[in-house]
Amino acid sequence: MTQDTEKLQLAALRDRIDDIDLKIGHLISERARCAQEVAEVKKANSDGSEIVYYRPEREAQVLRKAMERNQGPLGDEEMARLFREIMSACLALEHPIKVAFLGPEGTFTEQAALKHFGHSAVTRPMSAIDEVFREVESGAVQYGVVPVENSTEGVVNHTLDSFMDSNLKICGEVVLRIHQHLLVSEVTKTDSITRIYSHSQSLAQCRKWLDAHYPNAERVAVNSNAEAAKRLRGEWNAAAIAGEMAAEKYGLTKFAENIEDQPDNSTRFLIIGTEAVAPSGVDKSSVVIAMRNEPGALHDLLAPFQTHKIDLTRVETRPARSGNWNYVFFIDFNGHKDDERVQAALNEVSQKAADIKMLGSYPQGVL
Q: By residue range, what is the domain housing residue 325?
C-alpha cells in the first residue's frame, strides 16, 4: 500500500467518523430534550407531593437493554457505562441528583457513587457512615452510598448496624473491582520508603505483597485511602496504598500497580434513599430478622426460603441491641418483595420471628 493510498483511506474513514459523530450528537440532544419533557410532564401532574425524578428500576432496565443489544466491538460493560453517563447528564437537566458518600474525595466509595449515578451527579463526601445516613434522612441529599462488604475482608459492620436505627431503604447496589496501587509523590525517595499509609482494610488486602516487598516498612492505618494519599505531600520516605481515583485526585504516581493479594478482590456498596423501588425484572432484597433464642430458631428462619425456592445470597449475624433480640440476621436474597414467592416465605418466617424489617428491594447490580 502506498502512502497516498493510505492517506486516502484514512481520510475516507475520518469523514465517516465525523458523519457518525454528527448523528450521535443530534441523537443525544434529542434524548436530552425528551428528558426535559419528562420533567415537565411530572411537574404538570404533581399533586403537591415531592416529584421523583430518578427511578432506579427504569435505569437498570435501560442499561440491561443496552448490553443485550450490544453487537460489539465494545464490551457490554463499556457500552452500559457510556449509556450511564448519557442518562446522568440527561437526568441533571430534569433535576440534579445529590449523593452523599463515605469520604473523603478519592475513595473507592466515591468511585462507586460515580459508577452508579454518573459524573453529572452532585456528590458530597461525609466523614463517617452514620453521617451519610443522616444526610439522606435530613433531605439534604436524595441518596447515599456506603460500603457493605468486601470479598476478602467480609462485611462492614458499621453499615449493618446503621440500618438498625434508620428507616432508610436500600435502592440499589454497586460492585466495584478493587485495584490497590502503591503511590508515591514527587518528593518521595523511592529507594528509602520506611512508612506506608493506608486504610486498615487495604493494608490487610495487600499484606502478602507488603511482606514480600517492604517487610521492614512501618504500616500506618488511617481513616481512608484518600487521607493516606494526602499525607505524602510532605514526607519523602513515605508511600500510600490507594486506588486510581486517589492517585488522580492528589497528583500521585503509581510506583507499583495491582498489589492486592487476591486478584478478584471486590467491594459491594449499597445505595440508600427514602423511596421504595418498583420491580425491575432482576432484583435483590435485603431484610433484618430477629429470632428468639430457642431450639431450631435458625432452621425456622431458613426453611421457608428453601421451601419457596428463594436463593439466599448472604446471611450475616449481628449482636442484638436489646435483650429481646437474641439473634439478628441480615439476609440478602434474589427476588423482589412484591413477588408472590417472596411474600409467602416472609409470611412463614414472621410466624416464628420476633421482628422483621424489610430494608428494601432493588435492581441487582448491572455493572
A: 275-363
